[in-house]
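About this split. The held-out portion is used to measure sequence recovery: a designer receives only the structure tokens and must propose an amino acid at every position. Recovery is the fraction of positions where the proposal matches the reference. Here is one held-out target exactly as it appears in the evaluation file.
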């Protein structure tokens, strides 16, 4: 008898008290189908971990840092497929069906298409470019809900412990094993950061950062540039 899908959804969080319960409620069908949801809190001081506990299978706490948190969640999992999901991103209703088809495929990893929640036309354009770029390059980002077979993730020693571009860095290594399995039905990512920072401003910021990363700049310097730009946008 062939092995069946056993999914572990890993959610890194930090200061998500306002929305964590409604977000996790959206994942209850995943748990009801026999899969697990693991929340990894980066030492929030707003009660995020306590609010999350009734709605998931495990709450872990570790130092803040998305790569560190996702690796901690992966270390605690019992599933044969890991799905890394941001706390502002919702899975489509048929996500499990899609992931079962992935599990039966030869691919080692994959991602969803993405759409942004905002109604402005610019958000549809942004999502189209994100998905098109990913299909052309094979590179996925965290907004696209990356998933990977657990033995493969562990063999690659998980995400690099870097403060930015951990998703791009892992995608590059995964591409050496297989092209990503692309699920066309999109996850829905909250457009709030695009709205708060300005849609065009955020687009140009992310492209500048990726261009600088491809030119060899360190993730540490890029993270500093990102934080400085975000502070400037809020001032």
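Reference sequence for scoring:
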């Amino acid at each position: 008898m062939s092995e069946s899908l056993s999914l572990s959804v890993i959610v890194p969080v930090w200061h998500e008290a306002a929305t964590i319960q409604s977000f996790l409620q959206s994942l209850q069908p995943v748990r009801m189908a026999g899969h697990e949801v693991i929340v990894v809190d980066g030492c929030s001081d707003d009660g995020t971990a306590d609010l999350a506990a009734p709605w998931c299978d495990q709450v872990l706490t570790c130092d803040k840092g998305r790569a560190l948190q996702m690796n901690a969640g992966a270390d605690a999992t019992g599933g044969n497929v890991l799905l890394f999901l941001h706390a502002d991103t919702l899975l489509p209703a048929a996500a499990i069906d899609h992931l079962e088809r992935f599990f039966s495929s030869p691919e080692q990893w994959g991602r969803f298409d993405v759409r942004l929640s905002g109604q402005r036309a610019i958000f549809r354009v942004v999502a189209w470019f994100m998905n098109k770029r990913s299909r052309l390059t094979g590179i996925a980002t965290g907004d696209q809900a990356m998933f990977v077979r657990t033995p493969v993730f562990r063999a690659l020693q998980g995400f690099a412990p870097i403060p930015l571009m951990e998703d791009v860095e892992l995608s590059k290594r995964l591409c050496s094993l297989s092209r990503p399995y692309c699920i066309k039905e999109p996850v829905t990512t909250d457009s709030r950061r695009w709205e708060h920072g300005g849609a065009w401003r955020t687009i140009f910021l992310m492209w500048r950062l990726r261009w600088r990363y491809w030119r060899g700049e360190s993730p540490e310097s890029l993270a500093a540039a990102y934080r400085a730009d975000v502070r400037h946008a809020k001032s």
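Annotator remark: The radius of gyration is 17 Å.
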